[in-house]
Design goal:
Blueprint: E1 3-8, H1 12-23, E2 28-32, E3 52-53, H2 57-62, H3 72-77, H4 80-89, E4 94-97, E5 101-104, H5 109-123, E6 126-129, E7 132-138, E8 141-147, E9 152-160, H6 175-182, E10 191-193, E11 197-199, H7 203-206, E12 211-221, E13 226-237, E14 241-243, H8 245-251, E15 262-267, H9 274-287, H10 306-313, H11 326-337, E16 339-346, E17 354-356, E18 377-379, H12 393-408
Parallel strand pairs: 1-2, 1-9, 2-6, 9-18
Antiparallel strand pairs: 3-5, 4-5, 7-8, 8-9, 10-17, 11-14, 11-16, 12-13, 12-15, 13-14, 15-16
Helix pairs in contact: 1-5, 1-12, 9-11
Length: about 425
Protein backbone atom coordinates (compact mmCIF):
# COMPACT_ATOMS: atom_id res chain seq x y z
CA UNK A 1 0.00 0.00 0.00
CA UNK A 2 1.22 3.49 -0.80
CA UNK A 3 0.63 6.09 1.91
CA UNK A 4 0.00 9.80 1.68
CA UNK A 5 2.20 10.39 4.71
CA UNK A 6 4.76 8.27 6.52
CA UNK A 7 5.98 9.48 9.92
CA UNK A 8 9.22 7.95 11.18
CA UNK A 9 9.28 7.89 14.99
CA UNK A 10 6.46 7.59 17.49
CA UNK A 11 7.59 10.13 20.07
CA UNK A 12 6.00 13.46 20.96
CA UNK A 13 6.64 15.12 17.58
CA UNK A 14 5.87 11.98 15.58
CA UNK A 15 2.55 11.24 17.24
CA UNK A 16 1.48 14.86 16.88
CA UNK A 17 2.46 14.89 13.19
CA UNK A 18 0.73 11.57 12.44
CA UNK A 19 -2.49 12.46 14.21
CA UNK A 20 -2.63 15.92 12.64
CA UNK A 21 -2.07 14.58 9.11
CA UNK A 22 -4.65 11.81 9.55
CA UNK A 23 -7.25 14.29 10.86
CA UNK A 24 -6.91 16.07 7.52
CA UNK A 25 -8.01 12.92 5.74
CA UNK A 26 -4.57 11.70 4.68
CA UNK A 27 -3.68 8.01 4.73
CA UNK A 28 -0.98 8.00 7.40
CA UNK A 29 1.48 5.35 8.54
CA UNK A 30 3.39 5.91 11.80
CA UNK A 31 6.58 3.84 11.87
CA UNK A 32 7.96 3.00 15.33
CA UNK A 33 10.67 0.49 16.21
CA UNK A 34 9.81 0.22 19.91
CA UNK A 35 7.06 -2.00 21.28
CA UNK A 36 5.29 1.07 22.70
CA UNK A 37 4.78 4.59 21.41
CA UNK A 38 6.28 7.48 23.35
CA UNK A 39 8.88 5.45 25.21
CA UNK A 40 11.08 8.46 26.03
CA UNK A 41 8.02 10.57 26.77
CA UNK A 42 7.01 8.09 29.48
CA UNK A 43 10.13 8.83 31.55
CA UNK A 44 10.43 12.59 31.08
CA UNK A 45 10.23 14.89 34.06
CA UNK A 46 11.20 12.05 36.40
CA UNK A 47 8.10 10.22 35.27
CA UNK A 48 5.79 13.23 35.65
CA UNK A 49 6.19 14.82 32.17
CA UNK A 50 6.49 18.58 32.02
CA UNK A 51 4.12 18.92 29.05
CA UNK A 52 4.72 22.59 28.23
CA UNK A 53 5.37 25.97 29.76
CA UNK A 54 2.37 28.27 30.14
CA UNK A 55 4.03 31.33 28.65
CA UNK A 56 3.60 33.52 25.60
CA UNK A 57 5.32 32.86 22.29
CA UNK A 58 8.06 35.45 22.77
CA UNK A 59 9.01 34.04 26.17
CA UNK A 60 9.27 30.58 24.68
CA UNK A 61 11.45 31.80 21.81
CA UNK A 62 13.68 33.59 24.32
CA UNK A 63 14.12 30.24 26.10
CA UNK A 64 15.70 28.70 22.99
CA UNK A 65 19.38 29.73 23.02
CA UNK A 66 20.05 28.66 19.44
CA UNK A 67 17.87 29.17 16.33
CA UNK A 68 14.91 30.34 18.38
CA UNK A 69 13.60 32.64 15.63
CA UNK A 70 13.26 29.64 13.33
CA UNK A 71 10.46 28.38 15.61
CA UNK A 72 8.42 31.57 15.66
CA UNK A 73 5.93 30.52 12.97
CA UNK A 74 5.38 26.98 14.22
CA UNK A 75 4.99 28.03 17.85
CA UNK A 76 2.71 30.94 16.93
CA UNK A 77 0.36 28.55 15.14
CA UNK A 78 0.45 25.94 17.93
CA UNK A 79 1.34 27.78 21.13
CA UNK A 80 1.53 26.52 24.73
CA UNK A 81 -2.12 27.45 25.28
CA UNK A 82 -3.02 25.24 22.29
CA UNK A 83 -1.07 22.35 23.79
CA UNK A 84 -2.96 22.73 27.08
CA UNK A 85 -6.29 22.84 25.21
CA UNK A 86 -5.27 19.82 23.11
CA UNK A 87 -4.70 17.56 26.09
CA UNK A 88 -7.55 18.81 28.27
CA UNK A 89 -10.05 18.48 25.42
CA UNK A 90 -8.98 14.83 25.19
CA UNK A 91 -9.65 14.09 28.83
CA UNK A 92 -6.21 14.74 30.36
CA UNK A 93 -6.48 17.46 33.04
CA UNK A 94 -3.35 19.56 33.53
CA UNK A 95 -1.98 21.74 36.33
CA UNK A 96 0.47 24.64 36.35
CA UNK A 97 3.30 24.70 38.88
CA UNK A 98 6.22 26.97 39.76
CA UNK A 99 7.85 28.60 36.74
CA UNK A 100 4.67 28.10 34.63
CA UNK A 101 5.56 24.42 34.19
CA UNK A 102 2.57 22.34 33.13
CA UNK A 103 2.10 18.74 34.31
CA UNK A 104 -0.74 16.21 34.17
CA UNK A 105 -2.83 16.34 37.34
CA UNK A 106 -2.12 12.63 37.74
CA UNK A 107 1.66 13.27 37.77
CA UNK A 108 1.98 10.32 35.37
CA UNK A 109 4.00 10.79 32.19
CA UNK A 110 2.43 7.58 30.87
CA UNK A 111 -0.94 9.37 30.78
CA UNK A 112 0.49 11.96 28.36
CA UNK A 113 1.91 9.25 26.08
CA UNK A 114 -1.33 7.28 26.16
CA UNK A 115 -3.39 10.39 25.37
CA UNK A 116 -1.24 11.01 22.29
CA UNK A 117 -1.39 7.35 21.26
CA UNK A 118 -5.19 7.41 21.51
CA UNK A 119 -5.19 10.56 19.37
CA UNK A 120 -3.10 8.80 16.71
CA UNK A 121 -5.34 5.75 16.57
CA UNK A 122 -8.63 7.66 16.66
CA UNK A 123 -7.43 9.95 13.88
CA UNK A 124 -7.16 6.91 11.61
CA UNK A 125 -3.37 6.67 11.35
CA UNK A 126 -1.95 3.17 11.29
CA UNK A 127 0.98 2.19 13.50
CA UNK A 128 3.57 -0.12 11.93
CA UNK A 129 6.51 -1.67 13.76
CA UNK A 130 9.87 -1.43 12.06
CA UNK A 131 13.14 0.50 11.85
CA UNK A 132 13.98 2.83 9.00
CA UNK A 133 17.23 2.07 7.17
CA UNK A 134 17.18 4.68 4.40
CA UNK A 135 14.96 7.06 2.50
CA UNK A 136 13.64 6.18 -0.93
CA UNK A 137 14.53 9.17 -3.11
CA UNK A 138 13.77 9.87 -6.76
CA UNK A 139 14.21 13.00 -8.88
CA UNK A 140 14.68 15.31 -5.91
CA UNK A 141 11.65 13.99 -4.04
CA UNK A 142 11.05 11.44 -1.32
CA UNK A 143 9.17 8.28 -2.28
CA UNK A 144 9.08 6.39 1.02
CA UNK A 145 11.38 4.50 3.37
CA UNK A 146 13.28 1.22 3.21
CA UNK A 147 13.33 -0.73 6.49
CA UNK A 148 16.15 -2.74 8.03
CA UNK A 149 14.16 -5.96 7.56
CA UNK A 150 14.04 -5.42 3.79
CA UNK A 151 10.51 -4.06 3.51
CA UNK A 152 9.78 -0.83 1.69
CA UNK A 153 6.98 1.58 2.60
CA UNK A 154 6.05 3.85 -0.30
CA UNK A 155 4.74 7.31 0.65
CA UNK A 156 4.24 10.67 -0.97
CA UNK A 157 5.51 12.52 2.12
CA UNK A 158 7.88 11.43 4.88
CA UNK A 159 8.37 13.17 8.24
CA UNK A 160 11.53 12.28 10.15
CA UNK A 161 10.66 12.59 13.85
CA UNK A 162 12.91 9.97 15.44
CA UNK A 163 14.56 12.12 18.08
CA UNK A 164 18.16 12.95 18.89
CA UNK A 165 21.01 10.97 20.40
CA UNK A 166 20.19 11.29 24.11
CA UNK A 167 18.67 8.39 26.08
CA UNK A 168 19.54 5.76 23.43
CA UNK A 169 17.86 3.06 25.54
CA UNK A 170 14.53 4.64 24.58
CA UNK A 171 15.32 4.34 20.87
CA UNK A 172 16.84 7.80 20.31
CA UNK A 173 19.99 6.54 18.63
CA UNK A 174 20.56 9.34 16.12
CA UNK A 175 18.98 7.49 13.19
CA UNK A 176 17.26 10.68 12.04
CA UNK A 177 20.61 12.34 11.43
CA UNK A 178 21.65 9.45 9.19
CA UNK A 179 18.48 9.81 7.12
CA UNK A 180 19.00 13.58 6.88
CA UNK A 181 22.57 13.18 5.66
CA UNK A 182 21.43 10.64 3.08
CA UNK A 183 19.10 13.29 1.70
CA UNK A 184 21.99 15.77 1.48
CA UNK A 185 21.20 17.75 4.62
CA UNK A 186 23.77 19.36 6.87
CA UNK A 187 23.78 18.01 10.42
CA UNK A 188 25.42 20.49 12.78
CA UNK A 189 27.78 19.13 15.46
CA UNK A 190 26.00 17.23 18.20
CA UNK A 191 26.59 17.77 21.88
CA UNK A 192 24.68 17.07 25.08
CA UNK A 193 22.36 19.78 26.39
CA UNK A 194 20.43 19.92 29.64
CA UNK A 195 23.08 17.58 30.99
CA UNK A 196 24.92 17.26 34.33
CA UNK A 197 28.44 18.64 34.64
CA UNK A 198 31.68 16.90 35.58
CA UNK A 199 33.68 18.89 38.15
CA UNK A 200 37.39 18.96 38.89
CA UNK A 201 38.66 17.90 42.29
CA UNK A 202 37.15 15.88 45.11
CA UNK A 203 34.84 18.42 46.73
CA UNK A 204 31.64 17.51 44.88
CA UNK A 205 32.23 13.81 45.51
CA UNK A 206 32.55 14.51 49.24
CA UNK A 207 29.18 16.29 49.17
CA UNK A 208 27.48 13.63 47.00
CA UNK A 209 23.72 13.52 47.54
CA UNK A 210 23.51 17.02 49.00
CA UNK A 211 20.77 19.10 47.42
CA UNK A 212 20.81 22.88 47.81
CA UNK A 213 17.57 24.75 47.26
CA UNK A 214 17.23 28.46 46.60
CA UNK A 215 20.84 29.16 45.67
CA UNK A 216 22.06 31.63 43.07
CA UNK A 217 24.29 30.19 40.34
CA UNK A 218 26.52 32.03 37.90
CA UNK A 219 28.58 30.43 35.12
CA UNK A 220 31.70 32.19 33.88
CA UNK A 221 33.45 31.52 30.59
CA UNK A 222 37.05 31.98 31.74
CA UNK A 223 38.34 32.34 28.17
CA UNK A 224 35.96 35.21 27.38
CA UNK A 225 36.14 36.44 30.98
CA UNK A 226 32.40 37.01 31.24
CA UNK A 227 29.33 35.45 32.82
CA UNK A 228 27.28 33.41 30.35
CA UNK A 229 24.49 32.32 32.68
CA UNK A 230 22.82 33.36 35.93
CA UNK A 231 19.83 31.81 37.64
CA UNK A 232 18.33 30.84 40.97
CA UNK A 233 17.11 27.40 41.97
CA UNK A 234 18.06 23.89 43.02
CA UNK A 235 21.48 22.27 42.70
CA UNK A 236 22.61 18.71 43.43
CA UNK A 237 26.13 17.47 44.21
CA UNK A 238 26.95 14.06 42.73
CA UNK A 239 29.87 11.64 42.65
CA UNK A 240 31.04 13.23 39.36
CA UNK A 241 30.11 16.87 39.87
CA UNK A 242 26.89 18.87 39.61
CA UNK A 243 23.30 18.24 38.57
CA UNK A 244 19.84 19.61 39.36
CA UNK A 245 17.48 21.91 37.42
CA UNK A 246 19.63 25.05 37.56
CA UNK A 247 22.72 23.14 36.38
CA UNK A 248 20.88 21.43 33.52
CA UNK A 249 19.73 24.81 32.25
CA UNK A 250 23.24 26.22 32.68
CA UNK A 251 24.70 23.48 30.48
CA UNK A 252 22.77 24.84 27.48
CA UNK A 253 24.98 27.95 27.63
CA UNK A 254 28.29 26.08 27.62
CA UNK A 255 28.63 25.58 23.89
CA UNK A 256 32.44 25.87 23.84
CA UNK A 257 33.09 23.23 26.48
CA UNK A 258 36.72 22.42 27.23
CA UNK A 259 38.35 21.25 30.46
CA UNK A 260 38.61 24.19 32.84
CA UNK A 261 36.97 26.69 30.51
CA UNK A 262 33.83 27.16 32.64
CA UNK A 263 33.53 27.94 36.33
CA UNK A 264 30.33 27.64 38.35
CA UNK A 265 29.97 30.05 41.26
CA UNK A 266 27.29 29.30 43.87
CA UNK A 267 25.97 31.98 46.21
CA UNK A 268 25.00 29.88 49.22
CA UNK A 269 23.28 32.83 50.94
CA UNK A 270 21.63 34.85 48.14
CA UNK A 271 19.12 36.44 50.51
CA UNK A 272 21.92 38.08 52.53
CA UNK A 273 24.07 40.97 51.35
CA UNK A 274 27.79 40.67 52.17
CA UNK A 275 27.24 43.10 55.04
CA UNK A 276 24.29 41.17 56.49
CA UNK A 277 26.14 37.89 56.09
CA UNK A 278 29.13 39.32 57.96
CA UNK A 279 26.80 40.40 60.76
CA UNK A 280 25.36 36.89 60.85
CA UNK A 281 28.87 35.43 61.14
CA UNK A 282 29.73 37.85 63.95
CA UNK A 283 26.64 36.70 65.83
CA UNK A 284 27.18 32.98 65.18
CA UNK A 285 30.86 33.07 66.15
CA UNK A 286 29.94 35.07 69.25
CA UNK A 287 27.43 32.43 70.32
CA UNK A 288 30.08 29.75 69.74
CA UNK A 289 33.07 31.74 71.01
CA UNK A 290 34.60 28.82 72.92
CA UNK A 291 33.92 26.17 70.25
CA UNK A 292 36.22 25.09 67.46
CA UNK A 293 35.52 26.69 64.05
CA UNK A 294 34.73 23.32 62.44
CA UNK A 295 32.05 22.64 65.07
CA UNK A 296 30.36 26.04 64.88
CA UNK A 297 28.76 25.95 61.44
CA UNK A 298 25.79 23.56 61.79
CA UNK A 299 23.28 26.44 61.81
CA UNK A 300 24.86 27.99 58.73
CA UNK A 301 25.67 25.09 56.37
CA UNK A 302 24.46 21.54 55.64
CA UNK A 303 26.46 18.86 57.45
CA UNK A 304 28.03 17.43 54.27
CA UNK A 305 29.27 20.83 53.18
CA UNK A 306 30.98 21.84 56.43
CA UNK A 307 34.27 19.88 55.98
CA UNK A 308 34.66 21.19 52.43
CA UNK A 309 33.90 24.79 53.42
CA UNK A 310 36.31 24.61 56.35
CA UNK A 311 39.09 23.25 54.13
CA UNK A 312 38.49 25.91 51.48
CA UNK A 313 38.43 28.70 54.04
CA UNK A 314 42.04 28.14 55.04
CA UNK A 315 41.06 28.63 58.69
CA UNK A 316 42.52 25.81 60.84
CA UNK A 317 39.59 23.60 61.87
CA UNK A 318 40.50 23.68 65.57
CA UNK A 319 40.62 27.47 65.73
CA UNK A 320 38.41 28.76 68.54
CA UNK A 321 35.71 31.08 67.25
CA UNK A 322 36.89 33.86 69.60
CA UNK A 323 40.27 33.69 67.86
CA UNK A 324 38.91 34.17 64.32
CA UNK A 325 40.13 37.50 63.01
CA UNK A 326 38.09 40.03 61.07
CA UNK A 327 40.02 39.13 57.89
CA UNK A 328 39.35 35.39 58.42
CA UNK A 329 35.67 36.05 58.98
CA UNK A 330 35.28 38.25 55.90
CA UNK A 331 37.21 35.77 53.77
CA UNK A 332 34.85 33.04 54.92
CA UNK A 333 31.88 35.24 54.05
CA UNK A 334 33.27 35.75 50.56
CA UNK A 335 33.58 31.98 50.20
CA UNK A 336 29.90 31.52 51.10
CA UNK A 337 28.86 34.19 48.59
CA UNK A 338 30.99 32.65 45.81
CA UNK A 339 31.55 28.92 46.28
CA UNK A 340 33.37 28.07 43.06
CA UNK A 341 33.52 24.78 41.15
CA UNK A 342 35.74 24.34 38.11
CA UNK A 343 34.12 22.30 35.32
CA UNK A 344 35.93 19.53 33.52
CA UNK A 345 33.21 18.76 30.95
CA UNK A 346 29.74 17.38 30.26
CA UNK A 347 28.46 13.98 31.24
CA UNK A 348 27.96 11.71 28.17
CA UNK A 349 25.32 12.64 25.60
CA UNK A 350 23.48 9.45 26.57
CA UNK A 351 22.67 11.13 29.91
CA UNK A 352 21.47 14.40 28.39
CA UNK A 353 17.80 15.32 28.39
CA UNK A 354 18.10 16.66 24.85
CA UNK A 355 20.62 16.78 22.02
CA UNK A 356 21.98 20.13 20.91
CA UNK A 357 22.72 20.27 17.19
CA UNK A 358 20.93 18.47 14.39
CA UNK A 359 19.48 19.10 10.95
CA UNK A 360 20.38 22.64 9.92
CA UNK A 361 17.47 25.06 10.18
CA UNK A 362 18.77 26.86 7.09
CA UNK A 363 17.65 23.84 5.06
CA UNK A 364 14.11 23.59 6.50
CA UNK A 365 11.10 25.77 5.70
CA UNK A 366 10.07 27.17 9.12
CA UNK A 367 6.43 27.46 8.10
CA UNK A 368 5.96 23.84 7.08
CA UNK A 369 9.03 21.94 8.40
CA UNK A 370 9.58 20.71 4.82
CA UNK A 371 13.10 20.19 3.52
CA UNK A 372 14.33 22.88 1.17
CA UNK A 373 16.41 20.19 -0.59
CA UNK A 374 14.02 17.26 -1.05
CA UNK A 375 10.34 17.63 -1.92
CA UNK A 376 7.98 15.86 0.45
CA UNK A 377 10.58 15.37 3.20
CA UNK A 378 9.85 16.92 6.62
CA UNK A 379 11.66 17.15 9.96
CA UNK A 380 10.18 17.76 13.42
CA UNK A 381 11.22 17.53 17.05
CA UNK A 382 14.66 16.94 18.50
CA UNK A 383 16.23 15.91 15.18
CA UNK A 384 16.15 19.61 14.18
CA UNK A 385 18.94 21.93 15.40
CA UNK A 386 16.84 23.64 18.09
CA UNK A 387 16.89 22.99 21.82
CA UNK A 388 15.67 24.96 24.81
CA UNK A 389 16.08 25.27 28.55
CA UNK A 390 14.28 23.06 31.04
CA UNK A 391 10.71 23.91 31.92
CA UNK A 392 8.55 22.23 29.27
CA UNK A 393 9.96 24.23 26.35
CA UNK A 394 11.48 21.27 24.50
CA UNK A 395 8.26 19.27 24.47
CA UNK A 396 6.40 22.34 23.24
CA UNK A 397 8.89 22.56 20.38
CA UNK A 398 8.16 18.91 19.56
CA UNK A 399 4.41 19.50 19.56
CA UNK A 400 4.60 22.74 17.54
CA UNK A 401 6.96 21.40 14.85
CA UNK A 402 5.09 18.08 14.69
CA UNK A 403 1.83 19.96 14.22
CA UNK A 404 3.35 22.11 11.46
CA UNK A 405 4.63 19.05 9.60
CA UNK A 406 1.33 17.21 9.97
CA UNK A 407 -0.61 20.15 8.57
CA UNK A 408 1.73 20.49 5.59
CA UNK A 409 2.19 16.90 4.40
CA UNK A 410 0.42 16.33 1.11
CA UNK A 411 -2.08 13.76 -0.10
CA UNK A 412 -1.36 11.61 -3.14
CA UNK A 413 -2.49 13.20 -6.40
CA UNK A 414 -5.43 11.55 -8.11
Amino acid sequence: MSWDALVVGGGAAGMMAAGTAAERGLRVCLLEKNAVLGRKLRITGKGRCNVTNRCDVRTLIASVPKNGRFLFGAVSRFAPEDTVAFFESRGLPLKTERGNRVFPVSDRAADVAECLEKYVRESGARVTRGEAERLLLENGAVRGVALKDGREIPARSVAVCCGGASYPSTGSTGAGYRLARQAGHTVTPLRPSLVPLVARGRDCREMMGLSLRNVAVAVTDTALKKAVYRDFGELLFTHFGLSGPVILSASAHMDRMAPGRYRVSVDLKPALSPEKLDARLVRDFGLNRNREFCNSLSALLPRKMIPVAVRRSGIPPDTRCNAITREMRRGFGELLKSFEIEIEGFRPIEEAIVTSGGVSTDEIDPRTMESRLVKGLYFAGEVVDVDAYTGGFNLQIAFSTGRAAGKSMEAEET
